[in-house]
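> call design_seq(struct)
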C-alpha cells in the first residue's frame, strides 16, 4: 500500500531528523508544533518538485459549479499527485473515494484537504451573513458557524471558504449579502466570532473545519458596486476600514486566507506582495496558507499585470500565494519558472510547508478518513437542535423597519391575506451560497409557518418575483378584500445577490411594487415582509405600507421565525448593519462618512452651496444601527467618570436604559464617538462599543462602557496608528442617528 510506503519513507527519514525516540505511533499525532515541523522537513526532503507543486494546487470536482471554468480532468491530476486539495466534493462516501486515490494511488500518499463554500450553514441553513449580523449577537454567530462546521465535517469536509470579512458600503454589490455590513469595528468582532465558531480551539477535533478569511483585500470597495471591478482607495482607508476584520481573523488564529479578484491601487490582490508579504506575514505573523480565489492568478493577464500565465504564476508565488485555485497555473508553469530561476525553490518549500502543517494539524496523517463517517453524517445533518438554532437565528436577525399604529404584532383573531411571490417559497428563502441546503422539502415557507401555528389566513401568490404578468393580481385582490390585514412576502430572488449579482437598480424587482399599489387601493393595512440580500430602495414601500419586516433570506427555519415575529411570539430586536438609501443615486452611503467643508446643515451656509443633492436629501431612509421593537426604550443621559482621558487612564460611560413599553424586549445599546478634528479628517461618528441587553417591561438597566485611549487611535498621514489629544463627542443610543450628548478630552500623557 502506498500509504505504508509513505510512512516507511517518513520513518527512515525521521531517524535522521527527529531521532528514534519519536518513532512510535505518537509521532503521527499532531500535538507538538516542533515535531510537526520536523515531520514536514522529513517529507520535503523526499518530495520531488512536481510533488511539491502538487500540494499547491486545488481543483473543483464537477459536483458543484462555483466559477466559470471547470477542468474535468481533476481525477487524473489527483492520481498523478498533482493536487493537494479539492473543493466542491462533498459527502462521506464521495470524499472517502477521492481520499483513497490520494492516499493509496500516489507515491507519497499525502492526504487531500476537502474545501467547500459553507457560508451560512451546510444543510441546516441560517440567515445570510448580512442578515445574521443584524442580530449583533456574537455568541449566536459563533454557534451557527460551529453547527455549520459540524454538519460540513460530518460530510467529509475539512475547510470552509468563510467567513467573508469584506466591509462593503455599496448595496449594488451582490456580495454585500455575504459579509457583516459596513462597519469595521462590528465586522471585526463578527469575523472573530465566525472563525472561532468554524475552527473551535482544536483543529484535530473532527467536528471543526479550517476557516478562510476572504477576500483579501478590499473586494467590497469595487468601483460602482460592479463585481470584480477595480479598487482604488487610499492606504488610510485600506488600513482603517478594510483591513481590520482580516487582522481580527488572524488574531483568532484563522487557518487560511483567500486572495480577492480585484486589483488594489493598480496591483491585483493575487500578485500583491504588499498585502501578502508585508502586511499578512511580516506585520501580522500569519502562519496558515493563502489560497487564491478561483482562477485569479490567470486573471492577472487580463488585468494587464502579467505578460502571460507563467509570469502570472511567478508574480503570485513570489508575492506569497501558497495555493492556486482552479487556474492550473502552478501545475502547468511553476516548474519552468523554478528551472528558469524566476521562483526560488525555498519559496515553494515555504508554501508546501504551510499546507502540510495544516494537514498534520487536522490529523489527516493519522487518519485520512477521520471525517468520512456515513453513520455520524446521518445523525448530525439537520439535527433538530440545529433547526431550532436556525429558527432562533432567523428571529434575531429580523429587523422591524416600520410599524405604524402598532399594526404588528398581529392579533390571532384577525383574518390575514397572505400574498406575494415569496409567501409560499422554499427555494429562495435559504438565500444564495446555501451550500447543501435543500431548496424544497426541508425549508419552511411563511405559509407553512402560519399553518404550523394554525393561523387564520388565505393565500394568493399575486405575481412572480421577476417578469410575469398581472393575471394573478385578481385573485390576490379578492383575497385581500376578504381579510382584515394583508401580509405581503416579497423581495429578490436568491440569484439577485451573492457573487456576480450586482444590481444598478435597488427597487423591488418585477411587478411587485405594482401589486402593492393595487392592494393599497383596497384600504386594508399592509405588512410587508422582505427577503433580500442587500439594502433595497424602499422609499415607495415606506410611504405606502404600514409595517416593514426585513427578514433577509432567513434560512431553513425562516417561515417559523417570520411567523413568530409577526404574531409577537418573538419581539424583534435586530438592528441594521448596513445603511438603506433613499435611492440608488445616494450610493455609496454609510453612517460614518466625513463631514466635508460644506455639510448640509452648516451654519450660515447659503442653502444651495452645500454638499447635497438637489433632488433628494442626504439622510438615508434607514440608518445603520436602526431597528424597531414592539416595546420602547428610553435612554438616560450618559454619565462620564471623568471629563479627561489619558493614555494610561480610561474613562467609563454609564447610561441607564428603561423598557418603557408593555412587552419584554431586547435592545442593542450602541456607543458612538466623534473626534472633532485631527491631523487627517475624522468621520462624523464611529461605533466604538455596543451591548445587547434584555429588559422586562418597566425594567431599567445601567450599561457601562469603557473608553480607552486605544479606542481613539487612527491612521495618520504617515500611516502611523496613533491617537491625538483633543476633544471628542459621544452619544449612547439605539441607532447611529442621534445627537451627541457628552464630550471629553484626551490629554497627552
Ligand atoms: C469564487 C468566490 O469568489 C469565492 O468566494 C469562493 O470561495 C470560490 N469561488 C470557490 O467557490
Amino acid at each position: 500500500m502506498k500509504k505504508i510506503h509513505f510512512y516507511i519513507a517518513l520513518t527512515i527519514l525521521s531517524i535522521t531528523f527527529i531521532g528514534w525516540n519519536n518513532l512510535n505511533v505518537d509521532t503521527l499525532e499532531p500535538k507538538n508544533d516542533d515535531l510537526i515541523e520536523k515531520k514536514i522537513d522529513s517529507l520535503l526532503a523526499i518530495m520531488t518538485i512536481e510533488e511539491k507543486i502538487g500540494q499547491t494546487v486545488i481543483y473543483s470536482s464537477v459536483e458543484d459549479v462555483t466559477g466559470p471554468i471547470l477542468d474535468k480532468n481533476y481525477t487524473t491530476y489527483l492520481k498523478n499527485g498533482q493536487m493537494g486539495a479539492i473543493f466542491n466534493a462533498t459527502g462521506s462516501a464521495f470524499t472517502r473515494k477521492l481520499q483513497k486515490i490520494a492516499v493509496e494511488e500516489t507515491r507519497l500518499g499525502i492526504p487531500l484537504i476537502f474545501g467547500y463554500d459553507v457560508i451560512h450553514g451546510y444543510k441546516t441553513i441560517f440567515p445570510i451573513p448580512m442578515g445574521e449580523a443584524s442580530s449583533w449577537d456574537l455568541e449566536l454567530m459563533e454557534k451557527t458557524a460551529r453547527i455549520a462546521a459540524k454538519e460540513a465535517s460530518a460530510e467529509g469536509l475539512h475547510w470552509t471558504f468563510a467567513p467573508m470579512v469584506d466591509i462593503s458600503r455599496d448595496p449594488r454589490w451582490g456580495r454585500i449579502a455575504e459579509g457583516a455590513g459596513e462597519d469595521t469595528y462590528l465586522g471585526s468582532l463578527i469575523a472573530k466570532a465566525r472563525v472561532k465558531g468554524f475552527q473551535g480551539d482544536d483543529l484535530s477535533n473532527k467536528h471543526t473545519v479550517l476557516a478562510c478569511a476572504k477576500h483579501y483585500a478590499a473586494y467590497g470597495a469595487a468601483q460602482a458596486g460592479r463585481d470584480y471591478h477595480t479598487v482604488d482607495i487610499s492606504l488610510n482607508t485600506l488600513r482603517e476600514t478594510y483591513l481590520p476584520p482580516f487582522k481580527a481573523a488572524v488574531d483568532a488564529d484563522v487557518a487560511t486566507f483567500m486572495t480577492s479578484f480585484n486589483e488594489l491601487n493598480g496591483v491585483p490582490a493575487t500578485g500583491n506582495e504588499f498585502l501578502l508579504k508585508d502586511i499578512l506575514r511580516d506585520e501580522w505573523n500569519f502562519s496558515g496558507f493563502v489560497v487564491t480565489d478561483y482562477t485569479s492568478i490567470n486573471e492577472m493577464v487580463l488585468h494587464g499585470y502579467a505578460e502571460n500565465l507563467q509570469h502570472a504564476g511567478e508574480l503570485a508565488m513570489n508575492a506569497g500565494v501558497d495555493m492556486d485555485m482552479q487556474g492550473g497555473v502552478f501545475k502547468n508553469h511553476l516548474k519552468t519558472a523554478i528551472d528558469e530561476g524566476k521562483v526560488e525553490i525555498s519559496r515553494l518549500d515555504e508554501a508546501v510547508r504551510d499546507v502540510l502543517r495544516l494537514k498534520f494539524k487536522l490529523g489527516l496523517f493519522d487518519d485520512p478518513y477521520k471525517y468520512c463517517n456515513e453513520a455520524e453524517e446521518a445523525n448530525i445533518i439537520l439535527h433538530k437542535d440545529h433547526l431550532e438554532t436556525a429558527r432562533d437565528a432567523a428571529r434575531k436577525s429580523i429587523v422591524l423597519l416600520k410599524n405604524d399604529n402598532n399594526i404588528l404584532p398581529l392579533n390571532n383573531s384577525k383574518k390575514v391575506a397572505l400574498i406575494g411571490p415569496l409567501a409560499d417559497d422554499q427555494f429562495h428563502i435559504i438565500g444564495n451560497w446555501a451550500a447543501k441546503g435543500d431548496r424544497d422539502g426541508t425549508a419552511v415557507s411563511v405559509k407553512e409557518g402560519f399553518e404550523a401555528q394554525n393561523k387564520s389566513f388565505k393565500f394568493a401568490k399575486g405575481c412572480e418575483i421577476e417578469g410575469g404578468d398581472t393575471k394573478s393580481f385578481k385573485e390576490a385582490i379578492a383575497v385581500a378584500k376578504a381579510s382584515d390585514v394583508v401580509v405581503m412576502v416579497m423581495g429578490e430572488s436568491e440569484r439577485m445577490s451573492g457573487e456576480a449579482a450586482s444590481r444598478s437598480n435597488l427597487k423591488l424587482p418585477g411587478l411587485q411594487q405594482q401589486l402593492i399599489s393595487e392592494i393599497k387601493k383596497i384600504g386594508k393595512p399592509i405588512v410587508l415582509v422582505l427577503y433580500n440580500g442587500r439594502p433595497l430602495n424602499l422609499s415607495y414601500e415606506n410611504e405606502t405600507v404600514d409595517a416593514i419586516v426585513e427578514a433577509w433570506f432567513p434560512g431553513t427555519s425562516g417561515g417559523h421565525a417570520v411567523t413568530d415575529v409577526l404574531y409577537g411570539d418573538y419581539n424583534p430586536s435586530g438592528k441594521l448593519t448596513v445603511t438603506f438609501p433613499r435611492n440608488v443615486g445616494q450610493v455609496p452611503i454609510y453612517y460614518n462618512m466625513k463631514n466635508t467643508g460644506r455639510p448640509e446643515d452648516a451654519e450660515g451656509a447659503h442653502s444651495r452651496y452645500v454638499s447635497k443633492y438637489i433632488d433628494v436629501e442626504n439622510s438615508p431612509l434607514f440608518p445603520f444601527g436602526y431597528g424597531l421593537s414592539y416595546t420602547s426604550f428610553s435612554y438616560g443621559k450618559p454619565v462620564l467618570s471623568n471629563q479627561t482621558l489619558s493614555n494610561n487612564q480610561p474613562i467609563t460611560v454609564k447610561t441607564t436604559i428603561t423598557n418603557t413599553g408593555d412587552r419584554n424586549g431586547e435592545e442593542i445599546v450602541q456607543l458612538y464617538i466623534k473626534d472633532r478634528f485631527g491631523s487627517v479628517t475624522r468621520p462624523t461618528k464611529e461605533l466604538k462599543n455596543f451591548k445587547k441587553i434584555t429588559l422586562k417591561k418597566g425594567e431599567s438597566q445601567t450599561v457601562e462602557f469603557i473608553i480607552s485611549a486605544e479606542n481613539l487611535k487612527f491612521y495618520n498621514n504617515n500611516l502611523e496608528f496613533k491617537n491625538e489629544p483633543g476633544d471628542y463627542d459621544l452619544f449612547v443610543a439605539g441607532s447611529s442617528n442621534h445627537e451627541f450628548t457628552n464630550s471629553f478630552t484626551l490629554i497627552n500623557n
